[in-house]
Structures are given as C-alpha cells and as structure tokens.
Amino acid sequence: MFVHLSAFYSYRSLPFCRFFLQIEEEEGGDSFDIHISVSDPEKVGDGMNAYMAYKVTTKTSVALFRQRDFSVKRRFSDFLGLHSKLASKYLHIGYIVPPAPEKSIVGMTKVKVGKEDQSSNEFVERRRSALERYDEGQATAMLSSYKHLKLKLILLPRAVNTQALSSAGILRMVNKAAEAVNKMTIKMNESDAWFEEKQQHFENLDAQLRKLHASVECLVCHRKELSVNTAQFAKSAAMLGNSEDHTALSRALSQLAEVEEKIDQLHQDQANADFYLFSELLGDYVRLISAVKGVFDQRMKTWQKWQDSQMLLQKKREAEAKLQFTNKPDKLQQTKDEIKELEGRVQQGERDFEQISKTIRKEVSRFEKDRVKDFKMSIVKYLESLVQTQQQLIKYWEAFLPEAKAIS
Amino acid sequence: MLPEKLRSVSVDLNNDASLLIDIPDALCERDKVKFTVHTKTTLSSFQKPEFSVPRQHEDFIWLHDTLVETEDYAGLIIPPAPPKPDFESPREKMHKLGEGEATMTKEEYTKMKQELEAEYLAVFKKTVQVHEVFLQRLSSHPVLSKDRNFQIFLEYDQDLSVRRKNAKEMFGGFFKNMVKSADEVLIAGVKEVDDFFEQEKTFLLDYFSKIKEATAKAEKMTRSHKNIADDYIRLSATLNSLSAEESTNYYIIKFCLKLFQNFLRVCLKKVEGRVASDEELKLTELLRYYMRDIQAAKDLLYRRARALADYENSNKALDKARLKGKDVSQAEEHQKRCLQKFDTLSESGKKELTNFKARRVVAFRKNLVEMAELEVKHAKNNMTLLQGCIELLSGN
C-alpha cells in the first residue's frame, strides 16, 4: 500500500500526518496526499487579550474531508489543545505523539503589547514555522468546526481500545500510579531485551542530540555576531574611504565597504538558515526523543498498574480466605465480587501491557524508518543553503577584484 | 629578490641586494620569543658578508627607541615598533583544554589540541612577520640603514641586554617626552606656513582616527570568523560521537552524520579557519600596521611642530635680547640653529610623507587584491566540497 506524502512550505516532513495516515493504512485506505501550510500571521485584538491568528491552508484528497482545498484561522492555543487531546488519547497506549511546539510567554507578551521590533517579528516567524512543522496532521483535525467529531471520525477505528482505557476510573488510577512511582524506582522485570536495548539507545541519542543542538545554537549566535561586526566594519571602511585622499584607493575602499555590507546580509541569511534548517531541526528531534522516552515510561506505568492490580487481587484472596472462617456472609459475598472484578482488571492489565508493548515496537520501527529519511533530507537542505552562500561570496569578491586592481 | 618573503604590509622591501635581512627561525620558550636575525650583505661596513644573531623582542624595542631619540632622524618617519608577541589567546585556550580534558572524549581532545597548535603557529608566524618587516623597513631606508645602532643590532653577537639597560638610564624622562604620542593640540595649534604640511596635517589627523576605528572593527570581524571556525570544530567532534552510536537501524543517519562531520572537519573548519586568518593577515594586519605607521608620521609632524615652536620662541628671545641689548649674538646663533633645524625637518619631512603615501597606496592595493583572490579561492573550495557532499547524500 502506497502512501504518498509531500510537504509544501515546510522545511521538514510531517510527523503527525504520517501518524494519522498510518491508522488509515491499517483500515485499508487508499493512497492520498495532503499538503498543509501555516502562513499569514495576523494580530487580532488589543492589549493583553490580543493573540496571533495563523492561516492554516490544506490541500488534500483524503476522503475523510469534505473539501479538497480549504483554510481556516487558528491560534496557537488551538494547536496546544489538539495536542493535549491526542496525547491523552494516544500516549498511554504507546503511540508516539509528537510534542507540542513550545510556548513562550515572554515572546507572546511582547507581541501582544505591540512591540513591532525585530525580536517579536522573529518570534512570530519562529512560531509560525514551528506550527507548520509540527502540525500538519493535527491541523487536519482542527480544520472543521466539528473539532471533536473530526477527531472521533479519524480515531474511529481505534475507538474500541481507547474507550476502555480512557474511562475515568482507569485514568485516575493511572495518574495515581504515575504520581506514586518515580520512573527511577520502577523496577520492572524486563523480560524483553529489545526494550532494554532501545531504551538505552534513545537515552544516548537524547544526550548527544542535546549536545549537538547546543553547539548549533552557539553557531547561530556567532554567525549573527559576525553579521553585526561585518556591518560595523563596512561602515568604518566607508568612512576610511571618504577620508582617503588618493582617489583610486578611496574608490576601492568604498567598494570594499559595499561588498562587506552585502556580505553582512549574507551572514544574516545564513544565520537564519542555520537556525531554521538546522538548529530547529535538532530541537524538534530532541523533543521528539523525549516523546519516545515518554512512551517507554507509559509502558512501565502500564506494567506497574498491572502489577498493582495483581497485588490487590492477592490481598483480596487472602482476605477472602480469612473471611471463610468468620460468620459474615455479606462481607464474604462482597469480597467475592471484588475478587471477580479484580481478576477482570488483572487480565485487562496484562492485555494492556502486551498491547502497549506491541504498539511501541511498531511505533519505534516506523519512527526509525521515517526519521532517518527525514533527517537526511533536512541535512541536504541545510547544505544547499551553505552552497548558496558560497556562490554569493564568489560573486561579490569577483566583482570587487577589478576595483582593487585598478588602484594605481 | 626573495618573492616568497614579501609580506603583507610593505612592498619593495628587501630588494636591495646590498643589505638583505630576514628572520628564518624563531624559538618560543614560555613567555619569551627568540628570533634568529639573519643578514646577508655586500657592504664593507660589516665585518662578515653573512651572519646570524639571536634577538629578543625587547632588543627590537631598544633599537626603535634609540632611533626615535636620535636628533638627526627627527625629520624621518621612524618605522613603528613591532608589537609584543601576544600568545594570550592560544594560551587561554590551552588552559581551557586542560580543564575540560576530563569531560571530553579522547578523539575530541586530540582534535582540539591539534587546532590549538595550529593557532599557536599562526600567532607565531604573525609575530615573526611583524618583526621582520620592521628590520626590512630600516634596511631599505637610505638614511636609517646606515645607522650605527642598527648595525650593532644586526651584528653584535653578544647579548644586547646590557646596552638596553644603559639606554634606559640615559634617556629616561627626555625619552618619554619625545616619544609620547603626538600632542595633537600642539600640532593643530601651530600656524602653518606651508600648504603641503597644512594639508598633510589635516589629512593625517583625520585618517588616523578613521583607520583606528576600521582596525578595531576589522579585529572584531576577524574574531567572529574565528569563533565560527571553533564552532565547526566542536560540531564536528559532537557529530563524530553521535555517528558512533551503534544501531544498525540508524545506519543511514549514521552515514549522513559521518559524511556531514567529515565535511565539516575537512572543509568548513579548515577553510573557515583559513578565511579567518587570511582575512586577518590581509586586512586587519594591514590596517593595524598602517595605523601605527600613521602614528609614526604624526610623530614626525609633532617634531616639526616643536621645531617650529622652538624657532618662534627663539625669535621672541632674539627680539627680547635686542631690546635689552644683552647676549644678542647668542640669541642670533640660537635662532639660526632653530631655523636650520626647522628647514631640515621640513625638507626631509616632505620627502618622507610623499614616500609614505606612495608606499601606503601600493600596500593597500596588494593586500586588497590578494584578499579578494583568497576569498574567491576559499569560497570555491567550500562549494566544491559541499556539492560533493550533497551528491553523496542525495544519491543514497
């Protein structure tokens, strides 16, 4: 079954889109494609109640959607809302839900208060591209006003399983278990070497990617510095050229100043490429790996839950045995009922654990396959940006050369 | 003529075969750099036709200062003294490297160490060049090359430190007065009779402040380039450990990363580093050198201004003497001497300043041309490597 996916306007591919389409795959869907872009940030409202609205445009042939081509306006918190919905539905059964784009209060406040300066424009641009990168599949779900309905429609095939798990009672118990047990103290009898190995592997990858990300952020910073310094030098060279009394040399110095000014712009553009193509890529991967680790954690919690149910069952059985010797028929019956329920729960716990283990295996191998291709494409794009910079440099300096030679 | 010895800041030096000087060798011991000054000459004033002596930076400074002090050279632009060798930056890095040794992998450590050694070498080359140029400026000057102290510097095979100490005692305060940076107020305040000097004065004062500014900004720019080269080093080291992650499922990522890392290591880091050092040599060093040279030219103007002031004072003294009717002949003598001094200074000053301009223009041309050519070369290198990398990655 062929799934064709193309990204338009986004620098990287679509983590979420594949997520949804994979579900379709299993239901025997046909080939389709979907293009999503996030654009036209627009400030709505005033003061502290203001927010940025983004236009989300979709072009798709997926049968689920009524139209082929449509766009809506959504704000940042809409994206977060979608993420939390999906996370609550999917995370604890083992699906890797890509993390939400980061919320930055400072950045947003600046925009609200209307500071139309460089950094807030940058912030809006960062957010726009983050939303686009993150969210193409999620945007799908939000596109109709029937948010929840759409979600349910898409999630329908899985409804049975999710239903059971998201019932309030179990959810509360999971949360309690999560609170009670620090992941460090969950001593799980890992019968499956695959999980142990993968977990270790992701830990290492996480550490390395973070380091890499930090190095690239440093590079971006320095490149921006270089751009500023080049601009300043250009100005001083121009002034020197003005002060020079030898005509040809004066001309050459002024030309030098112009070249350096152009190069400053080049550095700025390169810094942006460094950032958007490389740094953000790594940042996304770091967050993605955290999501993967989260999924492994969920598995442990599921296991813990199962174990807890088993222990409870054990205790109830012991209680039942004791009650046999006392004359409390109601109590005995109640205990028998509780035991029945707990047996059911234990069985369910075991099933859940096996299910989540299975899902994680699939998710991880899918992740590994897709991420790799993804990563390669992004590196190529980044390298291409570097090539462009070099080409421009050659052009500028070759234009300057005759000017320098003309000094006599 | 030794074309490979032509350095960035001055041209047409060392092409007079009667006195050829170079620094073929230098040793770095802790804080001290020992230069080997090698001379080849056909002049009879020297004892041997070819010889070498070891010299320290302080010896160069001594030579410079004695030249400045010499009255006879008041009308000349004394070549600026070479700056003290500055190993601060690589030394700091070495320190950091030592501290971070525990946290780095062995490969990272060796790599950084190599880079550090390269940087040490670059600083070293720079300081040798600057000292060499100083000597070559002297040897190519018609008057200064004949200076007795210069000969001693080149020839005397004993330690010069004794002479250095004597010199300091002799000149003391007077030294400070003369060598202190040109008092711009004095220069500006003097009523100029000569158009040429008037123009030169205005030009030099303005140009000096502009070139000082440009030098500072160029230094910042070069430092940024160096920072980026260092970032590439760090990136490539991290990518290296990342690609060492064994997981067969990630073999494509591993491949990408390995390639990317190699590219960074071979191309960007080296080339970027070279761009930074070439830029520094051709541009920043050029500006720095001429800033100092212009300072020396300003010093000449200062000396001339002082001579003019002295002459004007002597005139006043003569008038007073005539009025009082006492020591008139003495005052006349003094006044004549002052006038003579002033005239000599003006004459040689004019020659020096005209030569200076020509020299400056030629040096700028040479360096700007070379810098542009190098930039193009590096960018083309970068591009070829990058494109090769992209092809490999896309092909897979």
Commentary on this structure:
The complex is a heterodimer of chains A (408) and B (396). With 408 residues, chain A is mainly alpha-helical. Chain A is built from ten helices and three strands, in the order αβββααααααααα. Chain A has a three-stranded antiparallel sheet. In chain A, helix 7 (168-180) crosses helix 9. With 396 residues, chain B is mainly alpha-helical. Chain B has helices spanning 57-69, 88-100, 106-139, 148-155, 161-179, 184-189, 195-243, 251-324, 328-395; strands spanning 19-29, 32-41, 50-56. In chain B, strand 1 and strand 2 form a beta hairpin. In chain B, helix 3 (106-139) packs antiparallel against helix 7 and helix 7 (195-243) packs antiparallel against helix 8 (251-324). The longest helix of chain B has 74 residues, at 251-324. Chain B starts with 18 loop residues before the first strand and ends with a helix. Mean pLDDT of chain B is 80; it is low at 1-9 and 173-179. At the A-B interface, helix 8, helix 9 and helix 10 of A face helix 7, helix 8 and helix 9 of B. Chain B: This is Sorting nexin. Chain B: Residues 1-160 form the PX domain. Chain B: It comes from Oryzias sinensis. Chain B: One of its GO terms (biological process) is retrograde transport, endosome to Golgi. Chain B: Belongs to the sorting nexin family.
Helices and strands, with pairings:
The complex is a heterodimer of chains A (408) and B (396).
Chain A: H1 15-26, E1 34-44, E2 51-60, E3 69-75, H2 76-90, H3 105-112, H4 118-142, H5 147-155, H6 159-166, H7 168-180, H8 193-243, H9 247-324, H10 329-405
Antiparallel strand pairs in A: 1-2, 2-3
Chain B: E1 19-29, E2 32-41, E3 50-56, H1 57-69, H2 88-100, H3 106-139, H4 148-155, H5 161-179, H6 184-189, H7 195-243, H8 251-324, H9 328-395
Antiparallel strand pairs in B: 1-2, 2-3
Helix pairs in contact in B: 1-5, 2-3, 3-7, 7-8, 8-9
